[in-house]
C-alpha cells in the first residue's frame, strides 16, 4: 500500500499476516473436531483403548506388587528353611535329631521350630476309606512354637499346647480341612489317623511362607513318638533371624544342622519363591505392555488417517484461508494442533479408563489401588508424541496446497 509522504515522496506500506495467539490456535484447531464429532470420537477412542490398556496393566501390576510387599512385610523376610537333601549315593538324607537344638545356638537366630514327617501314616475322614486313598495329605509332628515362627494363623479352634501335644489331638491345614470336608474344629469332630481316632482341635488359614503346611495334619511331637512310631528326626526346620544377619545365618545353617555332612542339607528362603512370582508378574506385565503399545500404534494410525481425510475434505477451507492471508505456517499449525487435540482427548480418556479399571480390579482382590504417576503422565505424553507424528504429514500437506489449487478442487 502506498501513500503521500512529506516532501512529495511516496511511502510504501506492506501488510504482514496476523499472528495466531495460543487461544486462536486452540480455537482454530478444535473447529475441525467440532464439525466432525463422530469421526473425532472414534479416532480418539482408538488412542484411549491403547492408553487404557497400558495404564491398567501398569496399575494392576503395581497394585499386586504393593500387596505382595505388604504381605512380605507382615510375614517377615527373615524366615529360613532347613531340610534334608540327598546323600552322595542319591538316597534321601536325614537331619540329626539334635539339629534343632544346634541351630538354636546360633547367636542371631531368634526362633526355631520344626516339623517331622511321619512315614506310612495317612489321615482319613472315616475308617471305611481304603488306605491307598491318601489324597496326597501328609501327617507331621510339630513343635509348639511353629505358628509364630512361620507366621501362621488359625481359622478356627486352637493350636496345640503342652497338654494336647501328648494326646490324640490334631490341627488341620487349610487344604486338608477342605479336602476332608471339615469346616470347623470341635471336640465332636474326629479324623482317622494312623489307624486311630484323633480329635480336630484347630484349622489353619493358608500359610504363604510355608505352603507345605496347607496339605498337612499336625500333631504334637510327643504323641507322634508314642503312638505313631515317629523316629524324632525333623524333616523341616524353620528359623527366624535378625534381619541384618539373615545371610550370615544362612551361610552356616547347613554346617550347623548336620556338621558331619553339610552337603546333605538344603537351606532355602521361602520369600525367594514370592520374589520369583513377582519376577514372573513383571515378565507378564512386559507382554501386556507390548499389546498395549500395539493398540496405541493402531490408534495413532487412526489419527493419521483421520487427519489425511480431513485435509482432503477441507481443501476449500484451506484455499480460502490462504487467499485471505493465512501463511503456510499457520495452516500447518492449525492441522497439527487439531491432531494434538484429538490425541490429547484420547490420551486423557484412556488414563481415566485405565485408573477406573485398576481401581475396580484392585478392589475385587482387596488390594490397594496404585497407579504410578509416571504411567498417567507417560500415557498422555505418549499420545501427544503419536498425535504429533501422525498429524505432521497431513499438516505439511495442507500447508503446501496453493490457494488457487485448493479452490479449484472444489
What does this structure look like?
With 410 residues, the chain is α+β, with helices and mostly antiparallel strands. The chain folds into two domains: 183 residues, no CATH class; 190 residues, no CATH class. Helices cover 52% and strands 16% of the residues. The chain contains twelve helices and 13 strands. Strands 3, 4, 5, 6, 7, 8, 9, 10, 11, 12 and 13 form an eleven-stranded mixed sheet that branches. Strand 1 and strand 2 form a beta hairpin. It is elongated. The mean pLDDT is 82.
Layout: helices, strands, pairs:
Layout (H helix, E strand, L loop, with lengths): L1 E3 L5 E3 L9 H14 L1 H39 L3 E6 L14 H6 L4 E9 L5 E2 L13 E5 L3 H5 L3 E4 L11 E4 L1 H7 L9 E4 L2 E9 L11 E5 H7 L8 E6 L4 H12 L7 E4 L1 H44 L1 H9 L4 H37 L8 H28 L2 H6 L2
Parallel strand pairs: 6-11, 8-10
Antiparallel strand pairs: 1-2, 3-12, 3-13, 4-6, 4-12, 5-9, 7-10, 8-11, 9-10
Task: Pick out its properties.
alpha+beta, 12 helices, 410 residues
Brief overview, please?
The chain has helices at 22-35, 37-75, 99-104, 146-150, 174-180, 221-227, 246-257, 270-313, 315-323, 328-364, 373-400, 403-408; strands at 2-4, 10-12, 79-84, 109-117, 123-124, 138-142, 154-157, 169-172, 190-193, 196-204, 216-220, 236-241, 265-268. The protein has 410 residues and is of the alpha+beta class. Strands 3, 4, 5, 6, 7, 8, 9, 10, 11, 12 and 13 form an eleven-stranded mixed β-sheet that branches. It has a two-stranded antiparallel ribbon with strand order 1-2.
| Helix proportion | 40-55%
Q: N- to C-terminal separation?
A: 31 Å
Instruction: Write down the oligomeric state.
Output: single chain
Task: Please give the domain count.
Answer: 2
Number of strands: 13
Our Rg estimate from Cα atoms comes to 36 Å
How would you characterize the largest beta sheet?
Answer: 11 strands, mixed
Number of helices: 12
- Global shape: elongated
